[in-house]
Structure prediction request, 621 residues.
Amino acid sequence: MNLKAMVSIAVIAVQLAIPAFMLRNHLNILANGELYRFKAEPFDPYDAMRGRYMVFSVDNEVEHYDGSPEVGNGQVVFAVIGKDNEGFAVIDHVTLSRPDNAGYIKTVAYYDFLPGNKNRVALPFNRFYMNEYKTKRAQKLYFDHTKTEESGTYVTVRVLNGKTAVENLYLADKPIEKYFD
Amino acid sequence: MKNANGIRWLYSQLPDLIDRGVIDTSTASKLKDHYGEVKYESKLPSMVTIFASIGAACIGLGIILLFAHNWDMIPRWLRAVLAFIPTMLTGLLVVWTLTKNKKSVALRESVAVGNMLSVGAMISLISQTYQIQGDISSFLLTWMLVCVPLVYLLDVTLPSVLYLAGITAWAGVAQMRFGNALLFFPLSLTIFPYWYSTLKRKQNTAQWLAAVACICYTIVIGIFLENAIPGAWIIVYCSFCAAMYLTGSYIWSRSELLWPVPLKRLGILGVVVMSYILTFNDTWDKLGYAVGKTLDDYLQIDAVADYIVCVLCLLTTCYLLIRMIQKRNYFETIFGSLPLVAIFGLITIASGASAYLPAWIFSAYVLVIGITTIASGIKNARLGTTNAGIFLVALLLFIRFMEEDVPIITRAVVFIVIGIMFLLTNVRLARRLQGGNRES
Prediction:
Protein backbone atom coordinates (compact mmCIF):
# COMPACT_ATOMS: atom_id res chain seq x y z
CA MET A 1 0.00 0.00 0.00
CA ASN A 2 1.44 3.38 -0.97
CA LEU A 3 1.77 6.42 1.30
CA LYS A 4 -1.15 8.28 -0.25
CA ALA A 5 -3.46 5.31 0.37
CA MET A 6 -2.37 5.15 4.01
CA VAL A 7 -2.94 8.90 4.48
CA SER A 8 -6.36 8.54 2.85
CA ILE A 9 -7.32 5.90 5.46
CA ALA A 10 -6.43 8.41 8.19
CA VAL A 11 -8.49 11.13 6.45
CA ILE A 12 -11.54 8.86 6.13
CA ALA A 13 -11.13 7.87 9.80
CA VAL A 14 -11.21 11.57 10.80
CA GLN A 15 -14.28 12.11 8.58
CA LEU A 16 -16.11 9.29 10.36
CA ALA A 17 -14.85 10.31 13.80
CA ILE A 18 -16.35 13.81 13.67
CA PRO A 19 -20.05 12.83 13.76
CA ALA A 20 -19.16 10.04 16.18
CA PHE A 21 -17.69 12.61 18.61
CA MET A 22 -20.67 14.91 18.10
CA LEU A 23 -22.97 12.02 18.94
CA ARG A 24 -20.97 10.99 22.01
CA ASN A 25 -21.03 14.55 23.42
CA HIS A 26 -24.73 14.91 22.69
CA LEU A 27 -25.62 11.61 24.37
CA ASN A 28 -23.48 12.59 27.36
CA ILE A 29 -25.44 15.85 27.76
CA LEU A 30 -28.74 13.97 27.43
CA ALA A 31 -27.67 11.44 30.07
CA ASN A 32 -26.05 13.77 32.60
CA GLY A 33 -27.41 17.28 31.89
CA GLU A 34 -29.87 19.17 34.05
CA LEU A 35 -33.39 19.36 32.58
CA TYR A 36 -34.98 22.74 31.79
CA ARG A 37 -38.30 23.61 30.15
CA PHE A 38 -38.23 26.65 27.84
CA LYS A 39 -41.52 28.14 26.64
CA ALA A 40 -41.57 27.77 22.84
CA GLU A 41 -43.56 28.97 19.85
CA PRO A 42 -43.10 26.42 17.06
CA PHE A 43 -43.68 26.88 13.34
CA ASP A 44 -43.00 24.83 10.24
CA PRO A 45 -40.52 26.21 7.70
CA TYR A 46 -39.41 24.59 4.42
CA ASP A 47 -35.81 24.05 3.46
CA ALA A 48 -34.64 22.60 0.12
CA MET A 49 -32.06 20.36 1.81
CA ARG A 50 -33.57 19.74 5.25
CA GLY A 51 -37.11 19.30 4.00
CA ARG A 52 -39.83 20.18 6.54
CA TYR A 53 -39.09 20.42 10.23
CA MET A 54 -40.14 22.52 13.21
CA VAL A 55 -38.46 25.73 14.22
CA PHE A 56 -39.33 27.22 17.59
CA SER A 57 -38.66 30.63 19.05
CA VAL A 58 -37.71 30.80 22.70
CA ASP A 59 -37.71 33.91 24.86
CA ASN A 60 -34.04 34.92 24.92
CA GLU A 61 -34.42 38.17 26.81
CA VAL A 62 -32.17 38.62 29.83
CA GLU A 63 -34.34 39.20 32.91
CA HIS A 64 -31.89 41.13 35.07
CA TYR A 65 -29.24 43.47 33.79
CA ASP A 66 -27.85 46.33 35.81
CA GLY A 67 -25.16 47.41 33.37
CA SER A 68 -22.44 45.20 34.79
CA PRO A 69 -20.68 43.43 33.17
CA GLU A 70 -20.29 45.56 30.06
CA VAL A 71 -21.33 43.36 27.17
CA GLY A 72 -20.87 44.16 23.48
CA ASN A 73 -22.59 42.78 20.41
CA GLY A 74 -21.27 39.32 19.56
CA GLN A 75 -19.39 38.94 22.85
CA VAL A 76 -19.17 35.45 24.33
CA VAL A 77 -21.11 35.31 27.60
CA PHE A 78 -22.40 32.77 30.09
CA ALA A 79 -26.18 33.03 30.30
CA VAL A 80 -27.26 31.90 33.78
CA ILE A 81 -30.58 30.06 33.75
CA GLY A 82 -33.26 30.94 36.28
CA LYS A 83 -36.90 29.90 36.62
CA ASP A 84 -40.12 31.93 36.40
CA ASN A 85 -43.09 31.44 38.74
CA GLU A 86 -44.47 28.62 36.53
CA GLY A 87 -41.16 26.74 36.65
CA PHE A 88 -40.14 27.54 33.08
CA ALA A 89 -36.53 28.39 32.34
CA VAL A 90 -35.56 32.03 31.68
CA ILE A 91 -32.23 33.75 31.16
CA ASP A 92 -31.72 35.35 34.56
CA HIS A 93 -28.51 37.27 33.93
CA VAL A 94 -25.22 37.06 32.06
CA THR A 95 -21.65 36.84 33.30
CA LEU A 96 -18.32 37.01 31.55
CA SER A 97 -16.77 34.28 33.71
CA ARG A 98 -17.98 30.70 34.00
CA PRO A 99 -20.47 30.44 36.93
CA ASP A 100 -19.71 27.87 39.65
CA ASN A 101 -23.01 26.79 41.13
CA ALA A 102 -25.69 27.42 38.53
CA GLY A 103 -27.03 26.10 35.26
CA TYR A 104 -25.67 28.22 32.42
CA ILE A 105 -25.40 28.28 28.62
CA LYS A 106 -22.27 29.43 26.85
CA THR A 107 -23.49 31.74 24.10
CA VAL A 108 -23.11 35.19 22.52
CA ALA A 109 -24.83 38.50 23.25
CA TYR A 110 -27.17 40.26 20.82
CA TYR A 111 -26.46 43.94 20.27
CA ASP A 112 -24.88 46.07 22.98
CA PHE A 113 -26.20 45.41 26.44
CA LEU A 114 -27.50 48.59 28.01
CA PRO A 115 -29.40 49.10 31.30
CA GLY A 116 -33.14 49.35 30.68
CA ASN A 117 -32.92 47.83 27.19
CA LYS A 118 -34.22 44.45 26.04
CA ASN A 119 -30.89 42.68 26.26
CA ARG A 120 -30.79 39.31 24.54
CA VAL A 121 -28.54 36.32 24.00
CA ALA A 122 -28.45 33.95 21.01
CA LEU A 123 -29.65 30.60 22.34
CA PRO A 124 -27.99 27.63 20.63
CA PHE A 125 -31.22 25.71 19.95
CA ASN A 126 -34.18 26.50 17.70
CA ARG A 127 -34.91 23.38 15.62
CA PHE A 128 -36.85 20.19 16.18
CA TYR A 129 -36.61 17.59 13.42
CA MET A 130 -39.57 15.32 12.81
CA ASN A 131 -41.19 13.49 9.91
CA GLU A 132 -41.80 16.06 7.19
CA TYR A 133 -45.36 14.82 6.57
CA LYS A 134 -46.27 15.53 10.20
CA THR A 135 -44.92 19.05 10.54
CA LYS A 136 -47.85 20.83 8.89
CA ARG A 137 -50.29 19.02 11.16
CA ALA A 138 -48.08 19.76 14.15
CA GLN A 139 -48.27 23.46 13.38
CA LYS A 140 -52.06 23.30 13.02
CA LEU A 141 -52.26 21.49 16.37
CA TYR A 142 -50.21 24.29 17.92
CA PHE A 143 -52.47 26.99 16.42
CA ASP A 144 -55.61 25.15 17.58
CA HIS A 145 -54.11 24.77 21.03
CA THR A 146 -53.20 28.45 21.39
CA LYS A 147 -56.80 29.44 20.52
CA THR A 148 -57.94 28.02 23.84
CA GLU A 149 -54.84 27.96 26.01
CA GLU A 150 -51.84 30.21 26.24
CA SER A 151 -49.29 27.91 27.86
CA GLY A 152 -48.28 24.29 27.68
CA THR A 153 -46.03 24.54 24.60
CA TYR A 154 -42.43 24.13 25.56
CA VAL A 155 -39.19 22.45 24.66
CA THR A 156 -37.20 20.34 27.10
CA VAL A 157 -33.48 21.01 27.02
CA ARG A 158 -30.66 19.29 28.90
CA VAL A 159 -27.80 21.57 29.95
CA LEU A 160 -24.31 20.39 30.94
CA ASN A 161 -21.23 22.59 31.33
CA GLY A 162 -22.69 25.37 29.21
CA LYS A 163 -23.69 23.03 26.35
CA THR A 164 -27.26 22.11 25.45
CA ALA A 165 -29.16 19.17 23.95
CA VAL A 166 -32.79 19.41 22.85
CA GLU A 167 -34.79 16.50 24.23
CA ASN A 168 -38.38 16.97 23.08
CA LEU A 169 -41.05 19.42 21.98
CA TYR A 170 -44.27 19.46 24.03
CA LEU A 171 -47.72 20.62 23.09
CA ALA A 172 -50.27 20.84 25.92
CA ASP A 173 -47.77 19.07 28.17
CA LYS A 174 -47.62 16.09 25.77
CA PRO A 175 -44.65 15.20 23.46
CA ILE A 176 -45.62 16.34 19.97
CA GLU A 177 -44.87 12.92 18.44
CA LYS A 178 -47.55 11.37 20.72
CA TYR A 179 -50.26 13.18 18.73
CA PHE A 180 -49.40 11.02 15.71
CA ASP A 181 -49.36 7.59 17.41
CA MET B 1 2.80 34.33 -30.09
CA LYS B 2 1.97 31.01 -31.72
CA ASN B 3 -1.57 30.31 -32.75
CA ALA B 4 -2.05 26.60 -32.11
CA ASN B 5 -5.27 26.42 -34.12
CA GLY B 6 -3.63 28.16 -37.10
CA ILE B 7 -0.59 25.85 -37.01
CA ARG B 8 -2.88 22.83 -36.77
CA TRP B 9 -4.75 24.10 -39.85
CA LEU B 10 -1.46 24.69 -41.71
CA TYR B 11 -0.25 21.15 -40.94
CA SER B 12 -3.55 19.72 -42.19
CA GLN B 13 -3.03 21.56 -45.50
CA LEU B 14 0.58 20.43 -46.06
CA PRO B 15 -0.14 17.04 -47.76
CA ASP B 16 -2.50 18.73 -50.23
CA LEU B 17 0.01 21.52 -50.93
CA ILE B 18 2.74 18.94 -51.62
CA ASP B 19 0.41 16.94 -53.93
CA ARG B 20 -0.43 20.06 -55.92
CA GLY B 21 3.25 20.99 -56.17
CA VAL B 22 2.85 24.29 -54.35
CA ILE B 23 5.63 23.32 -51.93
CA ASP B 24 8.04 20.40 -51.84
CA THR B 25 8.54 17.96 -48.96
CA SER B 26 11.68 19.69 -47.71
CA THR B 27 9.78 23.00 -47.40
CA ALA B 28 7.01 21.17 -45.56
CA SER B 29 9.48 19.64 -43.11
CA LYS B 30 11.19 23.04 -42.67
CA LEU B 31 7.78 24.54 -41.82
CA LYS B 32 7.21 21.76 -39.30
CA ASP B 33 10.66 22.35 -37.79
CA HIS B 34 9.97 26.07 -37.58
CA TYR B 35 6.56 25.86 -35.88
CA GLY B 36 7.30 22.73 -33.85
CA GLU B 37 4.94 20.08 -32.62
CA VAL B 38 1.39 21.07 -31.73
CA LYS B 39 -0.19 19.29 -28.81
CA TYR B 40 -3.58 17.87 -29.80
CA GLU B 41 -5.93 18.19 -26.84
CA SER B 42 -9.17 16.31 -27.06
CA LYS B 43 -12.13 17.76 -25.20
CA LEU B 44 -13.49 14.26 -24.63
CA PRO B 45 -11.66 13.44 -21.34
CA SER B 46 -12.71 16.82 -19.88
CA MET B 47 -16.33 16.15 -20.83
CA VAL B 48 -16.20 12.64 -19.33
CA THR B 49 -14.72 14.10 -16.12
CA ILE B 50 -17.36 16.80 -15.89
CA PHE B 51 -20.27 14.44 -16.52
CA ALA B 52 -18.88 11.74 -14.22
CA SER B 53 -18.53 14.32 -11.46
CA ILE B 54 -22.04 15.64 -12.11
CA GLY B 55 -23.24 12.02 -11.86
CA ALA B 56 -21.44 11.56 -8.54
CA ALA B 57 -22.84 14.86 -7.28
CA CYS B 58 -26.39 13.85 -8.28
CA ILE B 59 -26.04 10.51 -6.49
CA GLY B 60 -24.66 12.26 -3.41
CA LEU B 61 -27.46 14.84 -3.36
CA GLY B 62 -30.05 12.09 -3.96
CA ILE B 63 -28.72 10.21 -0.94
CA ILE B 64 -28.94 13.37 1.18
CA LEU B 65 -32.55 13.94 0.14
CA LEU B 66 -33.42 10.27 0.62
CA PHE B 67 -32.25 10.38 4.21
CA ALA B 68 -33.65 13.86 4.75
CA HIS B 69 -37.02 12.23 4.14
CA ASN B 70 -36.58 11.41 7.84
CA TRP B 71 -38.13 7.97 7.94
CA ASP B 72 -39.47 7.55 11.42
CA MET B 73 -40.31 3.88 10.90
CA ILE B 74 -36.57 3.15 11.04
CA PRO B 75 -35.14 3.06 14.57
CA ARG B 76 -32.87 5.91 15.49
CA TRP B 77 -29.72 3.79 15.80
CA LEU B 78 -30.27 2.27 12.35
CA ARG B 79 -30.70 5.71 10.80
CA ALA B 80 -27.39 6.70 12.43
CA VAL B 81 -25.68 3.62 10.97
CA LEU B 82 -27.17 4.34 7.53
CA ALA B 83 -25.82 7.90 7.73
CA PHE B 84 -22.27 6.55 8.06
CA ILE B 85 -22.53 4.09 5.13
CA PRO B 86 -22.12 6.51 2.14
CA THR B 87 -18.94 7.97 3.67
CA MET B 88 -17.59 4.47 4.35
CA LEU B 89 -18.32 3.35 0.77
CA THR B 90 -16.88 6.44 -0.90
CA GLY B 91 -13.95 6.26 1.54
CA LEU B 92 -13.26 2.70 0.43
CA LEU B 93 -13.40 3.87 -3.19
CA VAL B 94 -10.86 6.60 -2.40
CA VAL B 95 -8.49 4.04 -0.83
CA TRP B 96 -9.05 1.59 -3.73
CA THR B 97 -8.36 4.31 -6.34
CA LEU B 98 -5.09 5.18 -4.60
CA THR B 99 -4.02 1.58 -3.92
CA LYS B 100 -4.62 0.53 -7.52
CA ASN B 101 -3.01 3.79 -8.65
CA LYS B 102 -5.90 4.56 -11.01
CA LYS B 103 -5.04 7.30 -13.50
CA SER B 104 -8.54 8.03 -14.82
CA VAL B 105 -9.30 11.69 -14.07
CA ALA B 106 -13.05 11.03 -14.32
CA LEU B 107 -12.84 8.26 -11.71
CA ARG B 108 -10.71 10.27 -9.30
CA GLU B 109 -12.84 13.41 -9.62
CA SER B 110 -16.15 11.57 -9.18
CA VAL B 111 -14.89 9.50 -6.23
CA ALA B 112 -13.64 12.66 -4.48
CA VAL B 113 -16.87 14.60 -5.15
CA GLY B 114 -18.91 11.62 -3.93
CA ASN B 115 -16.89 11.42 -0.71
CA MET B 116 -17.13 15.14 -0.11
CA LEU B 117 -20.91 15.18 -0.46
CA SER B 118 -21.36 12.06 1.63
CA VAL B 119 -19.39 13.65 4.50
CA GLY B 120 -21.73 16.68 4.45
CA ALA B 121 -24.74 14.37 4.33
CA MET B 122 -23.40 12.24 7.20
CA ILE B 123 -22.88 15.19 9.57
CA SER B 124 -26.31 16.67 8.66
CA LEU B 125 -28.14 13.37 9.07
CA ILE B 126 -26.59 12.57 12.44
CA SER B 127 -27.53 16.10 13.55
CA GLN B 128 -31.13 15.67 12.36
CA THR B 129 -31.56 12.18 13.77
CA TYR B 130 -30.35 13.14 17.25
CA GLN B 131 -31.63 16.76 17.33
CA ILE B 132 -28.04 18.03 17.52
CA GLN B 133 -28.38 21.77 16.86
CA GLY B 134 -24.91 23.13 16.15
CA ASP B 135 -24.45 26.13 13.92
CA ILE B 136 -24.06 26.33 10.17
CA SER B 137 -20.65 28.07 10.28
CA SER B 138 -18.94 25.34 12.32
CA PHE B 139 -20.66 22.69 10.16
CA LEU B 140 -19.36 24.23 6.93
CA LEU B 141 -15.87 24.75 8.31
CA THR B 142 -15.58 21.20 9.68
CA TRP B 143 -16.95 19.72 6.46
CA MET B 144 -14.52 21.62 4.26
CA LEU B 145 -11.47 20.99 6.43
CA VAL B 146 -11.94 17.22 6.60
CA CYS B 147 -12.40 17.06 2.82
CA VAL B 148 -9.60 19.33 1.58
CA PRO B 149 -6.91 16.59 1.84
CA LEU B 150 -8.76 14.75 -0.99
CA VAL B 151 -7.57 17.47 -3.39
CA TYR B 152 -3.95 16.47 -2.82
CA LEU B 153 -4.47 12.75 -2.30
CA LEU B 154 -6.41 12.25 -5.54
CA ASP B 155 -4.99 15.24 -7.43
CA VAL B 156 -8.47 16.55 -8.27
CA THR B 157 -9.95 19.91 -9.26
CA LEU B 158 -13.71 19.76 -8.67
CA PRO B 159 -13.37 19.16 -4.91
CA SER B 160 -11.08 22.19 -4.75
CA VAL B 161 -13.83 24.22 -6.46
CA LEU B 162 -16.38 22.85 -3.95
CA TYR B 163 -13.95 23.64 -1.13
CA LEU B 164 -13.60 27.26 -2.30
CA ALA B 165 -17.39 27.58 -2.59
CA GLY B 166 -17.78 26.02 0.88
CA ILE B 167 -15.34 28.35 2.63
CA THR B 168 -16.93 31.33 0.82
CA ALA B 169 -20.32 30.30 2.23
CA TRP B 170 -18.66 29.85 5.64
CA ALA B 171 -17.17 33.37 5.44
CA GLY B 172 -20.64 34.83 4.80
CA VAL B 173 -22.23 32.97 7.70
CA ALA B 174 -19.30 33.61 10.06
CA GLN B 175 -19.34 37.36 9.41
CA MET B 176 -23.11 37.44 9.92
CA ARG B 177 -23.00 35.49 13.18
CA PHE B 178 -20.66 37.74 15.17
CA GLY B 179 -17.56 36.16 13.68
CA ASN B 180 -14.94 37.35 11.27
CA ALA B 181 -14.31 36.11 7.77
CA LEU B 182 -10.59 36.88 8.04
CA LEU B 183 -9.78 33.16 8.33
CA PHE B 184 -11.04 32.75 4.75
CA PHE B 185 -7.76 34.04 3.37
CA PRO B 186 -5.42 31.47 5.00
CA LEU B 187 -8.04 28.77 4.36
CA SER B 188 -8.11 29.60 0.66
CA LEU B 189 -4.32 29.35 0.51
CA THR B 190 -4.52 25.62 1.30
CA ILE B 191 -5.52 25.16 -2.35
CA PHE B 192 -2.60 27.25 -3.64
CA PRO B 193 0.02 24.42 -3.87
CA TYR B 194 -2.46 22.32 -5.89
CA TRP B 195 -3.23 25.25 -8.20
CA TYR B 196 0.50 25.88 -8.66
CA SER B 197 1.09 22.23 -9.55
CA THR B 198 -1.64 22.39 -12.25
CA LEU B 199 -0.05 25.59 -13.56
CA LYS B 200 3.36 23.91 -13.73
CA ARG B 201 1.82 21.00 -15.62
CA LYS B 202 0.20 23.52 -18.03
CA GLN B 203 -3.28 22.18 -17.35
CA ASN B 204 -6.37 24.13 -18.40
CA THR B 205 -7.74 23.59 -14.89
CA ALA B 206 -5.20 26.12 -13.53
CA GLN B 207 -7.02 28.90 -15.39
CA TRP B 208 -10.47 27.82 -14.28
CA LEU B 209 -9.45 27.27 -10.68
CA ALA B 210 -7.84 30.73 -10.61
CA ALA B 211 -11.08 32.22 -11.99
CA VAL B 212 -13.22 30.42 -9.39
CA ALA B 213 -10.87 31.53 -6.60
CA CYS B 214 -11.10 35.13 -7.82
CA ILE B 215 -14.91 35.01 -7.87
CA CYS B 216 -14.84 33.70 -4.28
CA TYR B 217 -12.37 36.42 -3.26
CA THR B 218 -14.59 39.09 -4.87
CA ILE B 219 -17.54 37.88 -2.78
CA VAL B 220 -15.57 37.54 0.47
CA ILE B 221 -13.93 40.96 0.13
CA GLY B 222 -17.43 42.44 -0.07
CA ILE B 223 -18.50 40.53 3.04
CA PHE B 224 -15.35 41.18 4.96
CA LEU B 225 -14.51 44.84 4.31
CA GLU B 226 -15.47 46.99 7.29
CA ASN B 227 -14.90 50.24 5.35
CA ALA B 228 -13.16 51.74 8.35
CA ILE B 229 -11.59 54.21 5.89
CA PRO B 230 -14.20 55.82 3.60
CA GLY B 231 -13.65 54.62 0.06
CA ALA B 232 -11.49 51.63 1.02
CA TRP B 233 -13.75 49.45 -1.14
CA ILE B 234 -12.79 51.55 -4.18
CA ILE B 235 -9.07 50.92 -3.72
CA VAL B 236 -9.56 47.23 -2.89
CA TYR B 237 -11.94 46.38 -5.74
CA CYS B 238 -10.09 48.49 -8.33
CA SER B 239 -6.76 46.89 -7.35
CA PHE B 240 -8.28 43.41 -7.19
CA CYS B 241 -9.91 43.62 -10.64
CA ALA B 242 -6.74 45.09 -12.15
CA ALA B 243 -4.64 42.39 -10.45
CA MET B 244 -6.93 39.68 -11.86
CA TYR B 245 -6.52 41.04 -15.36
CA LEU B 246 -2.77 41.59 -15.06
CA THR B 247 -2.19 38.14 -13.51
CA GLY B 248 -4.15 36.51 -16.32
CA SER B 249 -2.14 38.46 -18.90
CA TYR B 250 1.17 37.84 -17.13
CA ILE B 251 0.86 34.09 -16.53
CA TRP B 252 -0.94 33.10 -19.71
CA SER B 253 0.51 35.71 -22.09
CA ARG B 254 1.96 32.98 -24.31
CA SER B 255 -0.83 30.55 -23.69
CA GLU B 256 -1.48 27.98 -26.39
CA LEU B 257 -4.30 26.40 -24.49
CA LEU B 258 -7.57 25.70 -26.24
CA TRP B 259 -9.70 27.70 -23.83
CA PRO B 260 -9.62 31.48 -23.64
CA VAL B 261 -8.13 32.86 -20.41
CA PRO B 262 -11.08 33.19 -17.98
CA LEU B 263 -9.10 35.14 -15.38
CA LYS B 264 -8.22 37.80 -17.96
CA ARG B 265 -11.84 38.07 -19.03
CA LEU B 266 -13.05 38.32 -15.43
CA GLY B 267 -10.44 41.00 -14.77
CA ILE B 268 -11.46 43.05 -17.83
CA LEU B 269 -15.10 42.76 -16.82
CA GLY B 270 -14.22 43.92 -13.29
CA VAL B 271 -12.12 46.84 -14.54
CA VAL B 272 -14.88 47.99 -16.90
CA VAL B 273 -17.69 47.63 -14.31
CA MET B 274 -15.68 49.45 -11.61
CA SER B 275 -14.74 52.21 -14.04
CA TYR B 276 -18.36 52.79 -15.01
CA ILE B 277 -19.49 52.78 -11.36
CA LEU B 278 -16.90 55.45 -10.63
CA THR B 279 -18.11 57.69 -13.47
CA PHE B 280 -21.20 58.50 -11.39
CA ASN B 281 -21.19 61.57 -9.11
CA ASP B 282 -23.25 59.74 -6.50
CA THR B 283 -20.53 57.14 -5.94
CA TRP B 284 -18.10 59.86 -4.90
CA ASP B 285 -20.69 62.02 -3.19
CA LYS B 286 -21.82 59.28 -0.81
CA LEU B 287 -18.34 57.97 -0.16
CA GLY B 288 -18.19 56.15 3.16
CA TYR B 289 -21.94 56.24 3.70
CA ALA B 290 -22.88 53.42 1.37
CA VAL B 291 -22.20 50.78 3.98
CA GLY B 292 -24.61 49.05 6.29
CA LYS B 293 -22.47 49.38 9.39
CA THR B 294 -22.12 52.16 11.92
CA LEU B 295 -18.87 53.16 13.53
CA ASP B 296 -19.96 51.47 16.78
CA ASP B 297 -19.96 48.09 15.01
CA TYR B 298 -16.32 48.31 14.01
CA LEU B 299 -13.87 46.08 15.71
CA GLN B 300 -10.28 47.30 15.82
CA ILE B 301 -8.97 44.03 14.38
CA ASP B 302 -11.33 44.33 11.39
CA ALA B 303 -10.11 47.85 10.64
CA VAL B 304 -6.50 46.63 10.71
CA ALA B 305 -7.46 43.78 8.36
CA ASP B 306 -8.99 46.39 6.01
CA TYR B 307 -5.68 48.24 5.83
CA ILE B 308 -3.76 45.01 5.20
CA VAL B 309 -6.10 43.94 2.37
CA CYS B 310 -5.90 47.45 0.83
CA VAL B 311 -2.10 47.49 0.90
CA LEU B 312 -1.73 43.89 -0.34
CA CYS B 313 -4.08 44.41 -3.29
CA LEU B 314 -2.38 47.66 -4.22
CA LEU B 315 1.17 46.29 -3.95
CA THR B 316 0.28 43.25 -6.09
CA THR B 317 -1.19 45.48 -8.80
CA CYS B 318 1.80 47.85 -8.70
CA TYR B 319 4.26 44.94 -9.03
CA LEU B 320 2.35 43.51 -12.01
CA LEU B 321 2.05 46.97 -13.58
CA ILE B 322 5.82 47.46 -13.38
CA ARG B 323 6.34 44.07 -15.05
CA MET B 324 3.90 45.01 -17.82
CA ILE B 325 5.66 48.35 -18.41
CA GLN B 326 9.02 46.52 -18.54
CA LYS B 327 7.55 44.14 -21.14
CA ARG B 328 6.15 47.16 -23.05
CA ASN B 329 2.60 45.81 -22.84
CA TYR B 330 0.93 49.20 -22.94
CA PHE B 331 -2.59 47.89 -23.57
CA GLU B 332 -2.44 45.85 -20.34
CA THR B 333 -0.81 48.78 -18.51
CA ILE B 334 -3.69 51.14 -19.34
CA PHE B 335 -6.31 48.63 -18.08
CA GLY B 336 -4.18 47.82 -15.02
CA SER B 337 -3.83 51.50 -14.06
CA LEU B 338 -7.39 51.58 -12.71
CA PRO B 339 -6.39 51.64 -8.99
CA LEU B 340 -3.95 54.50 -9.61
CA VAL B 341 -6.72 56.55 -11.24
CA ALA B 342 -8.99 55.63 -8.30
CA ILE B 343 -6.40 56.84 -5.79
CA PHE B 344 -6.11 60.09 -7.73
CA GLY B 345 -9.91 60.42 -7.54
CA LEU B 346 -9.84 59.80 -3.78
CA ILE B 347 -7.11 62.43 -3.35
CA THR B 348 -9.23 65.02 -5.18
CA ILE B 349 -12.19 64.24 -2.89
CA ALA B 350 -9.99 64.33 0.22
CA SER B 351 -8.67 67.74 -0.83
CA GLY B 352 -12.23 69.09 -0.85
CA ALA B 353 -13.01 68.99 -4.59
CA SER B 354 -16.56 68.46 -5.84
CA ALA B 355 -17.73 64.88 -6.59
CA TYR B 356 -17.98 65.92 -10.25
CA LEU B 357 -14.19 66.06 -10.60
CA PRO B 358 -13.35 62.36 -9.91
CA ALA B 359 -16.47 61.33 -11.87
CA TRP B 360 -15.21 63.23 -14.91
CA ILE B 361 -11.68 61.86 -14.39
CA PHE B 362 -13.19 58.38 -14.63
CA SER B 363 -15.25 59.32 -17.67
CA ALA B 364 -11.97 60.35 -19.32
CA TYR B 365 -10.39 57.05 -18.19
CA VAL B 366 -13.25 55.00 -19.69
CA LEU B 367 -12.85 57.01 -22.91
CA VAL B 368 -9.12 56.18 -22.92
CA ILE B 369 -9.67 52.44 -22.39
CA GLY B 370 -12.39 52.48 -25.05
CA ILE B 371 -10.16 54.19 -27.62
CA THR B 372 -7.20 51.93 -26.70
CA THR B 373 -9.43 48.87 -27.24
CA ILE B 374 -10.57 50.19 -30.63
CA ALA B 375 -6.95 50.92 -31.62
CA SER B 376 -5.81 47.46 -30.50
CA GLY B 377 -8.68 45.83 -32.43
CA ILE B 378 -7.84 47.73 -35.63
CA LYS B 379 -4.09 47.07 -35.27
CA ASN B 380 -4.57 43.33 -34.78
CA ALA B 381 -7.51 43.16 -37.26
CA ARG B 382 -9.88 41.84 -34.58
CA LEU B 383 -13.49 42.69 -35.21
CA GLY B 384 -14.71 41.63 -31.74
CA THR B 385 -12.14 43.77 -29.89
CA THR B 386 -12.86 46.80 -32.08
CA ASN B 387 -16.61 46.51 -31.52
CA ALA B 388 -16.05 46.06 -27.77
CA GLY B 389 -14.07 49.33 -27.75
CA ILE B 390 -16.79 51.20 -29.65
CA PHE B 391 -19.37 49.73 -27.28
CA LEU B 392 -17.40 51.03 -24.25
CA VAL B 393 -17.35 54.55 -25.69
CA ALA B 394 -21.02 54.39 -26.73
CA LEU B 395 -22.08 53.17 -23.27
CA LEU B 396 -20.13 55.98 -21.61
CA LEU B 397 -21.82 58.59 -23.77
CA PHE B 398 -25.22 57.00 -23.16
CA ILE B 399 -24.70 57.07 -19.37
CA ARG B 400 -23.46 60.68 -19.42
CA PHE B 401 -26.42 61.75 -21.52
CA MET B 402 -28.83 60.11 -19.13
CA GLU B 403 -27.20 61.90 -16.20
CA GLU B 404 -26.52 65.32 -17.68
CA ASP B 405 -28.94 67.82 -19.16
CA VAL B 406 -27.88 67.52 -22.82
CA PRO B 407 -30.15 68.88 -25.60
CA ILE B 408 -31.98 66.17 -27.55
CA ILE B 409 -30.49 67.34 -30.88
CA THR B 410 -26.95 66.87 -29.56
CA ARG B 411 -27.85 63.39 -28.28
CA ALA B 412 -29.31 62.47 -31.67
CA VAL B 413 -26.23 63.70 -33.56
CA VAL B 414 -23.80 61.89 -31.23
CA PHE B 415 -25.71 58.61 -31.53
CA ILE B 416 -25.79 58.89 -35.33
CA VAL B 417 -22.02 59.48 -35.30
CA ILE B 418 -21.50 56.42 -33.07
CA GLY B 419 -23.69 54.33 -35.39
CA ILE B 420 -21.69 55.45 -38.41
CA MET B 421 -18.45 54.65 -36.53
CA PHE B 422 -19.71 51.12 -35.81
CA LEU B 423 -20.68 50.56 -39.46
CA LEU B 424 -17.57 52.08 -41.04
CA THR B 425 -15.14 50.30 -38.74
CA ASN B 426 -16.86 46.95 -39.27
CA VAL B 427 -16.99 47.34 -43.04
CA ARG B 428 -13.33 48.42 -43.24
CA LEU B 429 -12.15 45.65 -40.94
CA ALA B 430 -14.23 43.04 -42.75
CA ARG B 431 -12.66 44.14 -46.07
CA ARG B 432 -9.20 44.00 -44.54
CA LEU B 433 -9.83 40.50 -43.18
CA GLN B 434 -11.25 39.31 -46.52
CA GLY B 435 -8.24 40.82 -48.32
CA GLY B 436 -5.93 38.99 -45.93
CA ASN B 437 -7.77 35.72 -46.58
CA ARG B 438 -7.54 36.18 -50.35
CA GLU B 439 -3.80 36.89 -50.08
CA SER B 440 -3.28 33.71 -48.08
